[in-house]
Amino acid sequence: MPAYRIYDAKGKQMDFKEVLNRSVDQDVVLFGELHNNPIDHWLQLELMRALSEEGDVSVGAEMFEMDDQIVLNEYLADRIKLDHLKKEAKLWPNYDTDYAPLVELAKAQGIPFIATNVPRRYASLVSREGQSALIELEGASAILPSLPFEVTAGDRGYEEMKEMMGGHSHGMNMDLLVEAQALKDHCMASNILTNLNEEGVFLHFNGSFHSQYKAGIVGYLLAAKPALKILVIAAVEADSLDFQEEWSELGDIILITPTSLTKTH
């Protein structure tokens, strides 16, 4: 079995060069990953490298929170050592295997790398008390997106989240859980918009859930800038790598890997 296949939304098989050609013409490329999938991470690195060779590219990632931007910038500028980054930034457990190669490429080539996600403590607060609790915080505006924000009406991802968690919210308010998820999407979209690459592409790495069905992050991007050219890459795993019609709405490009693939963590 091959390690992966790539399709367009109509089920036509693509190669990496075709993915690159489509990416070059975009304002924003949202590469939706499965967090523990090694093929997803490898192709992210290859696409980042190829885009940097084609022209100007900026990068952002869900895996870094806004209050980690200073320490991330210091590391990228070679002002602090790696152990300081690891001690002071809230790096994910799979940082060394999956995200360090992206950061090191950015460091070597001077590629801007934006920490786009909201600090997790604030998402947790919203899940309990709603966004009004954020507005009451003092001194936090520099590491938060603009407030208040609207949860995107009819967002397919949020509707599926409600269905998936129905009856399993452990006593928590489902609407507030969705609002916390929307806060992350709003925050990532806000940071992408603030750091758009006027001369090239903004390549963003996020869990596929945050952009599949052209929902989540996409909704907030288009609400702010309707003419934005956005390419959504959606990752899925399956026993067979043959295209399934149910994947056609996930994104513009569908990356399929086998469920048997060894995971990174």
The total number of structural domains is: 1
- Note the run of SSEs as H and E: EEHEHEHHHEHHHHEHEE
- Strands, total number: 8
CATH fold naming: Rossmann fold
Structural class: alpha/beta
Strand content: 15-25%
CATH class: Alpha Beta
C-alpha end-to-end distance: 22 Å
Radius of gyration: 18 Å
DSSP helix count? 10
What's the helical proportion of residues?
40-55%
The major beta sheet can be summarized as:
8 strands, mixed
| Second rung of CATH, namely the architecture | 3-Layer(aba) Sandwich
The average pLDDT is: 95
Main-sheet strand order equals 2-1-8-7-3-6-4-5
| Principal-axis shape | globular
> Runs with pLDDT <50, length 5+?
none
Task: Describe the fold and architecture.
The protein has a single domain, classed as Rossmann fold. Helix content is 41%, strand content 18%. It contains ten helices and eight strands. The chain has helices spanning 16-24, 38-54, 69-76, 82-88, 95-109, 120-129, 132-135, 156-165, 174-194, 217-224; strands at 5-8, 13-14, 28-33, 57-65, 113-117, 201-207, 230-238, 253-258. It has an eight-stranded mixed beta sheet. α1 (16-24) crosses α2 (38-54) and α2 (38-54) runs parallel beside α5 (95-109). The protein is globular and about 50 Å long. The relative contact order is 0.23.
